[in-house]
Amino acid sequence: MRQRTMMLLEGADRLINKLGRYLLVAVFAFCLLCLFKIQVIQGASWETPAFVLGSMGVLIGLFLLFKLSLLKLSDRQALLLLTVLALVFFSFWNFVFRPVPVSDYKVLLEGARDIVDGTFKSQAAQPDNYFRYYNFQIGYAYYLSLIMRLFGDRLLFFKIIEMLVMTATTLVLYKTFRLFCDVHRSVFGAGVFTLFPYVFIGVGIINNQHEGLLLEALAIYFILKRRSWPNLLIAAVCIAIAQVLRPTAVVVAAAIIVTLMIQTIQQKSRQRLLETAAFIVTCWGLGWITNKLFILSGVAPYGIKVGNPYFKFLIGLTGKGVSGKYTTSARKTQLYYDLKEYHFNYALYKQAAAEKLKNVLIHGVNLQDIMNRFTGFIGNVDNQYYLGGNEQFMNRHPVLISSLNFAGMVVYGGTVLGTFKRVITEKWVTSRTSYLLPAVVFGMFFFAYIFMETQARYRFELYYVLFLLAVPTIYGWLTTLQEKMFTLDSSKDSR
């Protein structure tokens, strides 16, 4: 019986490797095709100045960071260097761009002020209130209220904390690289991440993506670190807290669970199976306790878990909600108008939304619309800078914004290409967790967003795992390029 079980597990491992490899090749080939279609065939309207300045910025940045990475640094020196680089660069950009809260981020800060003032509880109970139908945003508003209690409501303090959070994310990325790379590659990867336009361009925006990514990055780090119960439980705690601030953390949690299950099969380990169960129980248990505490406190009378689960799928599959009306402001969104259609009777709305979703799935969806939307999600320019709120700056400096966007797309496309090169050369998916986990995280987000509402700025978590996957390959390309140039120079000198 034991021998038969082992044979089944070995067969399952081979099958997972084969299917996983084909699936990853298909996913990243699709991403490259999306980028090629939108940025090349359709011809994204890049003006010559943006093309030239963006290209020069990428080339100069890569050259300087590559040369910097060649220095012989200890881990402590590397962390100090990256900290200074991130803080100086993020501070400079904040000083230049001067973002102000708009849209949802303005509403979240207003909610935080109401929590501090003690007026939030009555508002959150009203059926037509933003924090009633988007109750999952209460966790982040509460986090902002804690900052407000400590430092006051000056925007400067929130921006400083956002910069510190993103600096910490850079350092976690470096430490994660160090688990499977040398100091040189780690400094290079973390440095490029710091100067990546789609990271720093939104660093002064009060955004739950920043805190969520830091906690998700920590969870990935502790899963990849030396296998131990404390590391596993710390990762579970990070995911549970991230889920309070940003619901998409559940995707990372699912990816970790899938990774642990694959390792259970690959290693034929009962211990790994127990660890998987412990991770699930810890995440679920902490989430349940946190939700109950919010309810008991009165801050979230209806909890902080997503209260309208069908809405995102309706938008993703049909482009509109049950009412057919579109967003007019941060507080009056498509979901607001859908609920208004049913007089804010949440039970009736959920029933209607579920029925419409069922009809869509039974009678078929418009695959052309879904493909156009998803292709745009993968291949379009990241739109997060629009949420900076400083329209005057963008109107005065269109060439700068276009150049940064072009540079961002070049780096993003480079990480996709580097990852594609890696997935077609890696023969075994399950043998190294440092490859398996980031790949599963990317795949989970990729397939989740096929069916859900998407915007290009939702790629934020994907950038992080793309760097984990692509940097070793990209650094290898640069090293080869340097060696060839050095050899060429030497041969000329000898002649």
Task: Please describe what this structure looks like.
- There is one protein chain.
- By secondary structure, this protein is an all-alpha fold.
- It has one domain.
- The protein contains 22 helices and no strands.
Give me the number of helical elements: 22
Largest sheet: none
Mean pLDDT: 89
Domains (count)? 1
Compressed to H and E, one letter per element, the order equals HHHHHHHHHHHHHHHHHHHHHH
Radius of gyration: 24 Å
Please identify the structural class as seen in this structure: mainly alpha
List unreliable stretches of 5+ residues.
490-495
State the shape: globular
Work out the strand percent: under 5%
Separation of the first and last Cα atoms:
72 Å
Q: Report the strand count.
A: 0
Helix content: over 70%
Defining traits:
single chain, 495 residues, mainly alpha
List the helices and strands and how they pair.
Elements: H1 2-41, H2 48-69, H3 75-97, H4 103-117, H5 120-124, H6 130-133, H7 138-151, H8 155-177, H9 183-195, H10 197-200, H11 208-224, H12 229-245, H13 249-267, H14 270-297, H15 311-318, H16 334-341, H17 346-363, H18 367-379, H19 391-396, H20 398-425, H21 433-451, H22 460-494
Helix pairs in contact: 1-18, 1-20, 2-9, 2-20, 3-8, 3-9, 4-7, 8-9, 8-11, 9-22, 11-12, 12-13, 12-14, 13-14, 13-21, 15-17, 20-22, 21-22
